[in-house]
């Protein structure tokens, strides 16, 4: 008898089931919102603050409206209607979500709140509807007293939210795509509607069937208005980001978080497709003896362009790669011809954790873990720079690949990082790959050697040394130190990276390809020639400090200079040499 009573006490009533599932669905949709919004608006603290705020506001309004109506209208049937309406909205979310995202991204709003319209339109209504469930369930509760009924409902809803948070984070996102996850929550809502309103009449069955058909049709159709240039050969949601591999012609491109990250020529796997990866070789000109660089660490793997090229080009080099996302590692091995060996070791760890735990030292550390609007702040601070310095040999070099502007409001992150690195390294060098105020790759090189090398000395070393690639064009992007007195030194206890990146949101990220064309990070052509960009570079002056920061147009290389390596380029006569900027 006591066992039966205990079992009955654990059995949930229909209103209690509704509250629990509403908690699962609302929290699951909140986490899903971050993944849907990120490719268009980034995943900064401002984006997440907007998501959390909209969900709380929608739930609060739903609680308020549901509470006012509960005494007269609360029934299991009405709660079932709430779940069916939620499922129908989720179907629309799958079908036109991308269209709404693109449409709202053009609203003239400050970048910090740019995601507000999209989050409100996409997730406000279903969250508002789910807010009705708790007050309805409290009204229908068999618990004695308002306090006991309310407390029981709050407890069930919170437990449901906990389940939704863990299930979405640890099960759904690593296993399913965004549309499939949305379909899961839509199907869960329909199942809950059926469970709490059975037996259902013909009219309710018809409505339920229609919503189920709408949900399945939207998932089968896919996002309206969303096209990908090229063939998608692999796509997944990782615990850290969305991941896609696209083939277009002879080029295979890795997209992380909706932005192009790495590319490989399928016919010439060791060719630099994005020009900026050519800059990875510049440290060989800064070393007193390039042959002494034999231990290299890459923080951030992506398509492993740099690590693969180093192993291919330099016979005595051993490369370690610290990549936090296991899906990126498996994708690189399957689709980008990455093979571990005695000379190429891959570690599934975050960069800072790896440096903290390893007892190895390196001649060169390449920091390639920054994205346009997603920068791990723990890899930007003075404490991190100090840790990196401690893992470098006495003449070691730190190379950092940033995405920022070289001048103007969008340059704040670049200038703050330059200032931070300067606190730990005697010399820091800057190489903006495009120049001017556009968002681009900017390469920073920090050395422990206190003697500063000039552009002329680097050009001379480039002529004397064979490092497997002619870097004359890259050297000519050498820039003077930027102004840094108006930006902070980044520290673990205060690293306002999101604020510094805020001016970048919504701006195009210009990527140069080795074919001589420029495109944005999403793959679209900018319709501007490199010659046009070079003219802009020559005009670039920072008015705040009255100093020319342009990439100076250096004379053509001497006739004796011989291009080297598979990526060597011979400047055309009577045309300005154009600096490259991405592989």
TrEMBL record:
Composition bias, Polar residues: 512-529
Q: Per its UniProt record, what PROSITE patterns does this chain match?
A: PABS_2
Show the stretches that span the lipid bilayer.
12-33, 45-62, 82-101, 113-133, 153-172, 178-196, 208-228
Q: Name one GO biological process term.
A: polyamine biosynthetic process
Record keyword Transferase present? yes
Q: Does the keyword Membrane apply?
A: yes
State the active site: 368
Q: Do you know which InterPro entries this protein is assigned to?
A: PABS, SAM-dependent_MTases_sf
Task: Specify the PABS domain's residue ranges.
Answer: 212-455
Which intervals carry biased composition (Basic and acidic residues)?
Answer: 530-541, 566-575
- GO MF term set: thermospermine synthase activity
> Region (Disordered) spans which residues?
508-583
| Keywords carried by this UniProt record | Membrane, Polyamine biosynthesis, Transferase, Transmembrane, Transmembrane helix
Q: Where is the composition biased (Low complexity)?
A: 553-563
User: In which family does this protein belong, per the annotation?
Assistant: Belongs to the spermidine/spermine synthase family.
| Protein name, per record | Spermidine synthase
């Amino acid at each position: 008898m006591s066992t039966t009573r205990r079992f009955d006490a654990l059995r949930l009533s229909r209103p209690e089931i509704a509250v629990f599932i509403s908690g699962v669905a609302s929290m699951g949709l909140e986490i899903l919102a971050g993944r849907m919004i990120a490719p268009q608006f980034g995943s900064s603290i401002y984006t997440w603050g907007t998501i959390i705020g909209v969900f709380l506001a929608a739930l609060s309004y739903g609680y308020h409206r549901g509470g006012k109506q509960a005494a007269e209208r609360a029934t299991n049937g009405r709660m079932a209607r709430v779940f069916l309406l939620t499922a129908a909205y989720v179907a629309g979310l799958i079908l036109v979500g991308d269209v709404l995202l693109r449409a709202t991204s053009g609203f003239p709003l400050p970048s910090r709140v740019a995601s507000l319209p999209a989050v409100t339109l996409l997730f406000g209504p279903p969250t508002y509807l789910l807010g009705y469930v708790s007050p309805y369930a409290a009204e229908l509760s068999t618990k004695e007293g308002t306090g006991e009924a309310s407390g029981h409902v709050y407890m069930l809803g919170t437990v449901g939210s906990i389940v939704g948070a863990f299930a979405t984070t640890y099960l759904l996102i690593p296993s399913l795509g965004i549309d499939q996850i949305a379909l899961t929550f839509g199907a869960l809502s329909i199942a809950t509607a059926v469970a709490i309103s059975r037996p259902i009449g013909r009219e309710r069955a018809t409505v339920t069937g229609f919503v189920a058909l709408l949900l399945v049709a939207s998932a089968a159709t896919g996002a309206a208005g969303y096209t990908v240039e090229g063939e998608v050969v692999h796509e997944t949601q990782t615990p850290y980001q969305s991941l896609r591999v696209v083939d277009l012609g002879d080029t295979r491109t890795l997209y992380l978080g909706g932005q192009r990250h790495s590319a490989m020529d399928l016919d010439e796997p060791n060719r630099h497709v994005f020009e900026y990866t050519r800059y990875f070789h510049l440290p060989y000109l800064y070393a007193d003896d390039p042959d002494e660089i034999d231990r290299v660490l890459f923080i951030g793997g992506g398509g492993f362009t740099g690590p693969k090229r180093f192993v291919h080009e330099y016979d005595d080099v051993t490369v370690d790669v610290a990549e936090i996302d296991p899906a990126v590692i498996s994708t690189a091995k399957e689709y980008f011809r990455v093979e571990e060996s005695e000379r190429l070791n891959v570690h599934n760890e975050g960069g800072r954790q790896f440096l903290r735990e390893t007892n190895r030292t390196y001649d060169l550390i390449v920091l390639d873990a920054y994205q346009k609007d997603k920068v791990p702040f723990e890899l930007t601070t003075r404490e991190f720079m100090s840790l990196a310095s401690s893992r470098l040999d006495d003449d070691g070099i730190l190379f950092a690949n940033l995405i920022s502007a070289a001048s103007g409001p969008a340059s704040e992150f670049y200038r703050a990082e330059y200032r931070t690195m300067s606190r730990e390294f005697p010399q820091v060098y800057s190489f903006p790959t495009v120049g001017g105020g556009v968002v681009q790759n900017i390469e920073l090189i920090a050395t422990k050697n206190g003697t500063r090398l000039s552009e002329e000395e680097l050009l001379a070393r480039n002529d004397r040394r064979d490092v497997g690639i002619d870097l004359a064009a890259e050297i000519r992007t050498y820039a003077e130190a930027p102004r840094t007195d108006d930006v902070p030194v980044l520290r673990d206890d205060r690293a306002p990276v999101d604020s510094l990146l805020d001016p970048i949101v919504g701006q195009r990220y210009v990527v140069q390809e080795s074919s001589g064309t420029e495109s944005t990070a999403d793959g679209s052509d900018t319709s501007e020639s490199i010659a046009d960009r070079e003219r802009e570079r020559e005009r670039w002056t920072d008015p705040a400090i009255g100093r020319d920061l342009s990439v100076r147009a250096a004379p053509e290389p001497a006739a004796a200079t011989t291009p080297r390596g598979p990526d060597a380029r011979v400047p055309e006569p009577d045309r300005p040499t154009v600096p490259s900027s991405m592989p």
